[in-house]
Amino acid sequence: MKHACTLALLACLLALAGCGGGGRVTGSSISACMDPAQARSADIRRSLTALRGAPVCYRRQEVYEGDFHWTFHILEHTRAPDGPFWVLPHDNENAAFDAGVHALLTYGGGLLAVDAGGQRTYRGQDPNRNFSSSRGESRLCIAQRRPAPRYTRAILDHYRGRPSPILALHNNGNGHAGNGGYGNISMRRTGPLLSHWPGAAGRGSPALADEDNLIFVAGRRAAYADPALRRRIEALNGAGLNVIHKQVTAQSFDCSLSDYVARHGLGEYYNLEAEHGARATQIEMVDRLMAVLGIRALRTRDARNPFLG
220, CA 20 to 30 Å: which among 44, 55, 184, 270? Predict the structure, then answer.
């Protein structure tokens, strides 16, 4: 009997250990709803004035995968929780976070920010090059250290049952290396699978025409071969927004959120890119994208469903 109990205990411990590769218990958890003032996040602390008195709760999500311990900071609008949901993979992009808070308070929904201690990467891993479901898929990406199906699922589960497209916010440097700048994405950066669609001139602030302020979309087909995508791009251009489209293939897949969504056919995806520090411009881009998608501000619609308009 004693031997049987020992074997059962050992089996239980092995099951808990899992296959993480780092000896850590593999799992994830999410906290109950808390006041945002309780968050251990520099971004949220910086935003407390804007959040004070708003119907917003904070949740902390922990994800263990191998030797990685990821922390996600989540803000949710309690009166309009089914609104747009935004992912912010990089922890050093303050204008993007401020735009996310504006989107949350204006349109409801929520946002998820990956904690990397204020840095772009976490333990050498770019959070936006960490989306994969298998070892074979991960091997396609030189920037992913190891497969991350639990990380991927933990983020995308926030879209389960939600009518919102998958939305992301990023900031980038001025220009790109090819034209003397230091960013990694630009309307002037060319590539064999990239197509560029400039926004209509004269539709608002000159900042919208800047090469660094754009909406990034992706798909498995070229934009020219996808009529529905072409119509979306034309609507965005008509609103004065620059668009870059990437065609995702097995050779071009890079384990980014945009590429993963396109590769797996998970629906519409929009990434709002703005230059570092361009807070007002990125907020304007949020508002224009919401108008194109037919998502009204909370003050002008039924707060229970932002997609009825």
Answer: 184
- 155 in helix, strand or coil? helix
Report the Cα 136 to chain-centroid distance in Å. 23
Write out residues in the chain with pLDDT < 50, as ranges.
Answer: 1-25, 301-309
Residue closest to 257 by CA, chosen among 148, 115, 182 = 148
Contact by Cβ (8 Å): 166, 159: yes
DSSP 268: -
∠ CA 249-138-60, rounded to 5°: 110
| DSSP class per residue in 16-42 | HHTT-SSSSPPEEEEPPPB-GGG---H
8 A C-beta contact, residue 171 and residue 96: yes
Contact 165, 175 (CB under 8 A): no
Cβ atoms of 193 and 249 within 8 Å: the answer is yes
Instruction: Please state which CATH class domain 16-300 belongs to.
Output: alpha beta
| pLDDT at residue 296 in the model | 94
Residue 214 to residue 185: CA distance in whole angstroms? 9
Mapped onto helix, strand or coil, the DSSP state of residue 169 is strand
For residue 176, the model assigns a pLDDT of 61
Q: 111 to each of 88, 114, 287, how far by Cα in Å? A: 7, 10, 16
Residues 6+ apart with CB under 8 A from 140: 250, 253, 255
Distance CA 87, CA 77 (A): 15
Torsion of CA 259, 193, 239, 213, to 10 degrees: 80
In the numeric block, the tokens 């699978």 are attached to 193
What burial class does residue 16 get, using C-beta atoms within 10 Å of its C-beta: 0-12 exposed, 13-18 middle, 19+ buried? exposed
CA gap 1, 58 in Å, rounded:
48
- Which residue ranges make up each domain of the chain? 16-300
| Per-residue pLDDT reduced to its tens digit, 136-192 | 999 999 999 999 999 999 999 999 988 889 999 999 977 566 665 555 788 987 888
